[in-house]
Amino acid sequence: MVQLLYLVVFSCLLKASLQKSTPQDSEYVAAVVEYQVSRNVEENLRNYIEHITEAAKQGADIIAFPELTLTNSTTSFPVPIKGLLREYPIPALHPELYDNLLVAISKAARDNQIYVLVNIRELMDCTHNDTGELCPEAKKYTFNTNVVFDRTGKVIDRYRKINLFGEASHTPALQPDLGYFETDFGVNFSHFICFDLMFQVPAVQSVQKLNVTNIIFSTMWFSELPYLTAVQIQESYAYTMNVNFIASGANNIAVGSAGSGIYSGKAGALISIMPGVPTTRLLVSRVPKVPGQVTGSYPGPIYDKPDNHDRLRLITDPSLVAHVSRPLTSGYQQFTLTEKDVSCKFTVKMSPGIGESFPYFRAVIQDSTTTYTLREIGVVSCSIVACTTDQFKSCASNYHPLAATALIEELTIEMTTSHPQFNSSLQCDNAVYFPLSLTKRKFPIGTDNFSIHHGEPDELLRSQLSTDSETGDGKKDITTIVYKLKKPQEDLLSFGIWGKNVFKRCRS
Ligand SMILES: *[C@@H]1O[C@H](CO)[C@@H](O)[C@H](O)[C@H]1NC(C)=O
Ligand SMILES: *[C@@H]1O[C@H](CO)[C@@H](O)[C@H](O)[C@H]1NC(C)=O
Ligand SMILES: *[C@@H]1O[C@H](CO)[C@@H](O)[C@H](O)[C@H]1NC(C)=O
Ligand SMILES: *[C@@H]1O[C@H](CO)[C@@H](O)[C@H](O)[C@H]1NC(C)=O
Ligand SMILES: *[C@@H]1O[C@H](CO)[C@@H](O)[C@H](O)[C@H]1NC(C)=O
Ligand SMILES: *[C@@H]1O[C@H](CO)[C@@H](O)[C@H](O)[C@H]1NC(C)=O
């Protein structure tokens, strides 16, 4: 009996230690939390610790939490990574030196031997001027900050959000420092926060300059049709940058925040959710260290019940109607639209829809700057979007997922525009073009159902566009991206290439 007990205990211990991934493994296990927003900090802390414990039980090596779902608008605390934490890096072992939230998360990471990333409001008190940090003014700063703990509860990284989405009470990072940490399972991560995804620094620089293939994303995203709903852009970022993308989203459906997932390069979503009802949910998945090299089966997108979608607020890009567009008709059509430096050839074959609410479709092209909370972003795009009437203003509005739609039998979009340029001081490209799609269920189509590649620019287009798109040395640098459906689709809301081009900002 005693022996048996010994055996059981021993095999449990063995299992626990086997569960940790090692540098030799081809996979690791990641966890994210779709977390319903609450202002009750004590309750959040209890929930966080439960999720950390549960993720560890399920064998996760690392867990990431969303943006600003631990602290509330009146709670903040110091993370003195250049001060006290150098000497006493494990808050769990020195509770008297640190805020109780920092101590509690450190302890949970340590108790469960798991890496933890949390996002918090960080206080930096520069009135004392003994922080060891850059203190441009003698005042108190509040940052929107990711803090990373290792398996011993040690604080190993701190990243301050560079690109604030309004957030009047926060100061953007004083220097554009990237988030970066290494792990004992042979994976190096970068991480950034929400609106940061839209900018060259850090979203492109993190991958290209640091040469990492694993990115953690803490977010409280405000979904926008037709290009920027949460899971749609998360999955496309992973695909386009060819990285594993571990995205943890705050859930607050009344303002349009929902959507989390774990994505692996060209393989798409290993697991993803876009809930239309208030939700807190832990998602755990094996992740191949080489993005896209999946083996075995994965849950993929977890769909909501159709009726639940109506409660998620989804706004429509207000600038959409300002652009060049053309309605699609039933049957086969091929045409080219041009706006400023972007030209797109559309080849479409569409069958008439069935049902009462036959949707209209429009091809839309855009080359402009779009302003999001005072920040101008250069956007180029070519897409088709579903509309409820023949009026442009009815396009890309929120659809009921059961509404009838048309069958798109063939669809190819060839976008010709300026080629991304490598910026050698930032060590990254200045433009990224994302293949985006959205179906009525609020997820993108699977990565098996489309292809995207660079093609040869049409000579006529090249001569038309090249005058405007000369680079500094006068060289014409034009590229054509071919984005194509591989299988007919009957529940598309949008399909197109959407790109950010930093050049545009300087030009307008
Ligand atoms: C934030 O949490 C603290 C601590 O629980 C509480 O005292 C405070 O009232 C909360 N603030 C808001 C705005 O809810
Ligand atoms: C903080 O102290 C450093 C020298 O230690 C000084 O250069 C800097 O101006 C001080 N900043 C403030 C805000 O007092
Ligand atoms: C992680 O970074 C370390 C230090 O730069 C490097 O030696 C190692 O090769 C990197 N690991 C991977 C998988 O890139
Ligand atoms: C970047 O990382 C990959 C593996 O992830 C490695 O093969 C390559 O040599 C690295 N390149 C540089 C410049 O470090
Ligand atoms: C590279 O980026 C820096 C920082 O944004 C910018 O000042 C510089 O003009 C860029 N260089 C080129 C060649 O675009
Ligand atoms: C791919 O397209 C087919 C229809 O041609 C559809 O049945 C399937 O669900 C699609 N897969 C995904 C993941 O979108």
UniProtKB/TrEMBL annotation:
Keyword Signal belongs to the record:
yes
Q: Which residues form the signal peptide?
A: 1-19
Keywords (alphabetical) are: Hydrolase, Signal
Q: Which PROSITE patterns match?
A: CN_HYDROLASE
Q: Which GO terms describe its molecular function?
A: hydrolase activity
* Cited InterPro entries: Biotinidase/VNN (IPR040154), C-N_Hydrolase (IPR003010), Vanin_C (IPR043957)
Could you tell me which residue ranges the CN hydrolase domain spans?
28-289
What's the protein here called?
CN hydrolase domain-containing protein
